[in-house]
Amino acid sequence: MQVAIGIVLNGLIGLAAASYSSSEFDWTTISPSTDLEYHDCFDDFKCARLIAPLDYKNDTDPRTVVIAMIKLPAVVPDDDPAFAGSIFTNPGGPGGAGVGFMVRAGKGLRNVLDKPGRRHYEILSFDPRGVGNSWPRANCFVRDTLARNAILLELRGHGPLNSGGGSAVPYVLALQKAIGRRCQDAEESNINGGQIMAYMGTPNVARDMVQMVDKIAELRARDASARKYLSYNGNDQEDRLKLKRRKASQVDYGVPRLQYIGYSYGTVLGNYFASLFPGRVGRIVLDGVVDVNDYSSGPGWITNLVDTDEIADRFFSGCHEAGPKICALARENDESSSSVKSRFYLWLSELDKKPISAISPTGTIVVVSSQDIRELLGSALYKPRRSFITFAKALNNAMAGDTAAIVRSLFRRHLPQPKDVCAIHNSTGPGSEEYLPEGAASVLCADGDNVLGYDAAWWKRYVDYQVNTSSIFGAYWSNIRIACNSWNFHPNWVFKGPFTTPSAKYLAFGEPVSGHPAAPILFVSNRLDPVTPLIAARAMAAQHPGAGLVVTEALGHGTMGTGDSACLHSYIADYFDTGVVPSGEALCKPDCDPWNKECDTAELETTPQNGQGYSWDYTLSARI
Ligand SMILES: *[C@@H]1O[C@H](CO)[C@@H](O)[C@H](O)[C@H]1NC(C)=O
Ligand SMILES: *[C@@H]1O[C@H](CO)[C@@H](O)[C@H](O)[C@H]1NC(C)=O
Ligand SMILES: *[C@@H]1O[C@H](CO)[C@@H](O)[C@H](O)[C@H]1NC(C)=O
After folding, report:
1. Domain end marker among 399, 420, 441
2. Which domain holds residue 399?
3. Which among 44, 60, 431, 585 has the fewest CB atoms less than 10 Å away?
4. Which H or E run includes 165?
């Protein structure tokens, strides 16, 4: 998750969605087109700007959106018998951008999904409508990053939502109301190139994927006939043989279908897609699974944190087991992990009486509270392999009075540095890839039940419930939905389920039956996930007939970078190949333990190490 400017905390960014520098590629060099046209970008990638209808629910509405697409070509040409089409991916969010994710993680993903010599895929992603380089863009603070930053600092001042004897809630509601008004003003003034915020709900994004799948099929058909024309050697029989060999080795779905792997919020998108367009399902893998019933109905986002505090306990017990040579918080003479844990909580309660005064590297003044530490701990639980050892060290230093590392990570992940704002975000057009919380709100408020104008008492109960579920993350997590209290856009397309699919069905010669998925969905989950618990994966799998579930014995959000193993990767690659899911719950052991210093973390390098890539950042100022 990454949070946000206080408009909303963006809960479910599964994977780091850090920014690339927009100087790497200028999207305005591509003219948007209705048919798919790829252009070189980011060295090894191809980019396109596809025009799609703004409002699929209104045939007479002429307005359009432009979707920024990116693909990593397959390692074989399209006419190679082992070429097996596109696999789409979404990194999480809502509001997360696919382009930056692909640039960093596309190659690693392709390596996992390919079956050398047998199946090679192109990997494809996109900035969802309203997000990143897509256009129009949901942005309520165009050319005004300073105002954006000021809100974040203001939102800190009141303390966590469960503090102040209940006074924090009405304060935040008042702030959100002003933010909501600013967003409406932005839409009405047309400053973002047209209206978008009411048209960003997940059904629209799922429908955009149908559009992309169809445009890819059209382009491939055009290319294939051009190739055939150019390479025709006068031998029809040889040509037919070639075609036959190729078909035999490829997924031949008839109607164009989606092959997809989604993480975190990407599992919401995949679930909506499958439930709305079951006849377009080729293969779908959902990793770090959101309970889409909770996401779309009721108070919303209240089942995410059931395992969060237990993972925090694992942080302390793992630290104790690893010992002081590896975990800086451990001591030689500790008798049990509760010694580590109680030292930490004692220090936390002292912080409440005496918060830390700090000055950031660029001179911003900040007070570090116990709530900040809880949020940092909650953040560390997302990617234990990357964070546990370094976070333990930063904490240990802070507990000994040296708060430099904690302050640095607070600024990296959660706070703006107003000194920077004049140099950034000066453009109104596409080309800025950074995460914006109003992009998240546009999606999640449209998808969830309407909570517009609910009173402070209702929200206090909501916050209490969240804090009851997780003392570490509950107050913070409540920010996600509270943004919807003043999100006054009427969504064009709402879908409340049922989130289910007919069973996968084939004709005698192997082609999937129209209206049915080509394969059941494969769900993937860590044993303990801080924001998308295993119980949600089980519930979602139970709603889709024939679905499979792979559980990896790891901690962290989503399996990428937390629960990787040859076992897991082969379940996924085999599924894309055959469409077969394991029966029952398949188990895999991760290659690496968070406390194992020997572990090769090379594959994790696709996401920046310095914290800017932490997907759970508050993401003001280009820090996702
Ligand atoms: C559909 O679009 C047309 C043209 O923009 C507009 O006049 C009409 O009000 C829209 N209908 C609905 C139901 O939004
Ligand atoms: C931002 O845009 C304004 C107006 O176009 C321009 O005057 C200013 O120089 C720009 N600032 C930066 C840092 O690019
Ligand atoms: C939170 O837990 C406390 C103690 O168990 C209980 O009294 C309270 O009703 C709970 N609040 C909510 C909103 O669930």
Report:
1. 420
2. 307-420
3. 60
4. none
Closest ligand, as measured to the CA of 58: 1
Question: Does residue 449 fall inside a structural domain?
Answer: no
For residue 190, give the DSSP letter. T
Give per-residue pLDDT as tens, 242-291: 555 555 444 567 899 999 999 999 999 999 999 999 999 999 999 999 99
For residue 281, what is the enclosing H or E element? Answer: strand 281-287
Name all residues whose Cβ lies below 6 A of ligand 3: 461, 464-465, 468
- From 56, 58, 492, give the residue whose CB has the most ligand 1 atoms within 8 Å, as the site to mutate: 58
Q: How far is the CA of 209 from the centre of ligand 1 (A)?
A: 23
Question: Does ligand 1 come within 6 angstroms of the Cβ of 61?
Answer: yes
State which ligand 2 atom lies nearest to the alpha carbon of 424: 13
Q: How many independent structural domains does the chain possess?
A: 3
Q: In what order do the strands lie in the sheet with 120-127?
A: 39-41, 45-53, 64-72, 120-127, 83-90, 258-263, 281-287, 522-528, 548-555, 585-588
Return the closest-CA partner of residue 88 out of 42, 49, 114, 122: 122
In a domain, 397, yes or no: yes
Mutate to test the pocket of ligand 3, among 305, 309, 468 (most ligand atoms within 8 A of CB): 468
Indicate if ligand 1 lies below 6 Å from the C-beta of 34: no
CA atoms within 13 Å, Cβ hemisphere of 467:
15
Q: What are 322-360's pLDDT values in tens digits?
A: 999 999 999 999 999 999 999 999 999 999 999 999 888
Of 369, 387, 420, the residue at which a domain comes to its end is: 420
Residues 261 and 286 in one domain: yes
| Same domain flag for 121 and 264 | no
Residue nearest to atom 2 of ligand 2 (CA): 426
Asked whether residue 456 is domain-assigned, the answer is no
292 and 343 inside one domain: no
Domain shared by 361 and 289, yes or no? no
